[in-house]
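Researcher: Let's run the pair from yesterday's discussion. Sequence first, then tokens, for each.
Model: Starting with the first of the pair.
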Amino acid sequence: MYVSKDFQRCGVASKLLAAIEQKAKEQNNPEIYSHVSKTAKGFFLKTGYEHREDIKDMYKGELFINALMVKKL
């Protein structure tokens, strides 16, 4: 999930995440997870996700360290 800089801090990401979580609940998923950037980690922590582990991702030859965030539904 990515929100354009022009629309950040306006509640757009919270509404998108709430809709995704609702759909996951309707499908009887016990938890939901996402690989998120360092920038997004704080947002996910504030919305009830816990940091499980760091994940190393390679993209176009560049190493990115992302976080695996998990929330029980």
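Model: Moving on to the second of the pair.
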Amino acid sequence: MTYAIGEDAEFGIACLGITHPHTSGRVKAFQRMPGARLMGAYDDSPLLAPFVDALGLEARTKEAILADPNVHAVLVHSKSHSMATLAVEALEAGKAVLCEKPAGRGSADTAR
């Protein structure tokens, strides 16, 4: 998968899961990156509302993020039990994926 980002192009990024400790730092780094555009975040955690409020993001459904052609990549930063499933769903939707560790609950999850 290759994306060419020119001066006027935007690279859309969204979060699938926000409960990993590195999530806010990664979001802030992408917010400072020219050409990167944060397209929202999904999580079933009650922490989603304060997370998106603090970082100026939109709360979205997983389905909306995966169907959005302007989202080119996702950060999978969910709880361990859902990381593998979210990563596979994002890959099947044609998204580039950055999956935080651990990428699941064991070798069966990560082999997927």
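Researcher: Give me one sentence on the second I can quote.
Model: The beta strands are 11-16, 36-42, 73-76, 96-99.
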